[in-house]
Design goal:
Blueprint (H helix, E strand, L loop, with lengths): L4 E6 L1 H18 L6 E6 L3 H9 L6 E8 L12 E4 L9 E9 L3 H12 L4 E9 L12 E5 L5 E2 L15 E4 L1 H4 L1
Parallel strand pairs: 2-3, 2-5, 5-6, 6-7
Antiparallel strand pairs: 1-9, 3-4, 8-9
Helix pairs in contact: 1-2
């Protein structure tokens, strides 16, 4: 898999530092609260695990699976709810943990869903933010890294289901997907 990567953007050490930084900030911001952490599957599973290990606050974890890429390189423009969360969010502080905010469609869909179910508050913690990809308004409250408009894989992010297990984030060589 390493041979398919044009260049590494964030090393394992960079990622560890970002998770520690975010965990400390979240611990401070959620002191005295008991948030529901909502991990967006499948891409955010590694990031969620590593950030939550650094998060020293009583919290519950749940998962939601939504899809807009359908295995491709670009969003299809529609968001499908593949697997709903199991916890009731009514009156809860919810922290969405996402792998990447690109077009903003997925995040907007999830935030609207949570507020329609009467969440008390909704904040977003994303591993990667790609503002150049936005087509709808979406803003993360906590960001690991801001990335350029390139196709990135690794540490949970995939191309056709592969590369999620890379311990770093890299730019996928164009010849792999063209």
């Amino acid at each position: 898999m390493d041979n398919d990567i044009a260049r590494v953007l964030y090393s394992k050490a960079d990622i560890k530092e970002a998770c520690e930084r975010l965990g400390k900030q979240l611990t401070k911001d959620y002191a005295g609260k008991r948030p529901l952490i909502l991990s967006v599957l499948t891409g955010a599973m590694f990031f969620t695990t590593d950030v939550v290990r650094e998060f020293d606050v009583y919290s519950e974890i749940d998962f939601i699976d939504v899809s807009s890429y359908k295995g491709g390189m670009e969003s299809t423009g529609t968001v499908d709810l593949v697997s709903d969360l199991s916890e009731d969010v009514n009156g809860r502080d919810v922290l969405i943990i996402e792998d990447i905010v690109d077009t903003g469609r997925t995040l907007s869909y999830i935030v609207d869903l949570l507020y329609s179910r009467n969440a008390k508050s909704v904040k977003i913690c994303t591993f990667l933010d790609k503002p150049a990809g936005r087509v709808v308004e979406a803003k993360a409250d906590y960001v690991g890294f801001t990335v350029p408009k390139e196709f990135v894989v690794g540490y949970g992010l995939d191309y056709q289901g592969y590369y999620r297990n890379l311990p770093y984030v890299g730019v996928l060589k164009p010849e792999v997907y063209e």
